[in-house]
Amino acid sequence: MPRRRVPAPRRPATLGARAAAALVLVLVIALSSPHVSGKSGNAAGGVAGYVDEADCVVAYRKRDCPYVAEFKHCAIQSPIPARCCLKLAPLVPYTACLQIPKYWALADGVLAPNVTVDRVLQDCVGLAGG
């Protein structure tokens, strides 16, 4: 009698929304910390507390990307759902730019009229902004 092949149990192809949101939370906290150090090409790299404004300009140019529009559309709900917060994941490397008031204001302008940076930090990351 031939042996039957038993398929291996399938693992989910993607993380659950809560697990992915937790991962984004960890990345945002790590990247926005003023104690980040080390050399890298992203906005969080370099000397502790240093933000390369060239990276912030790159981030601002992404304001018209589809994921920003999708986020603004789904962020009308309160609190902002985790799956909606995940739409901003491509911008996580640029969170250090929020240390510069000019880029905080630009981000608020991009998210207006229904969403603010403070609200994103509160609902998506669990941090108070400011």
UniProtKB/TrEMBL annotation:
Keyword Signal in record: yes
UniProt keyword list: Signal
Signal sequence interval, chain numbering: 1-38
Lineage top rank: taxon: Eukaryota
Protein name (Swiss-Prot/TrEMBL): Bifunctional inhibitor/plant lipid transfer protein/seed storage helical domain-containing protein
Organism: Gonium pectorale
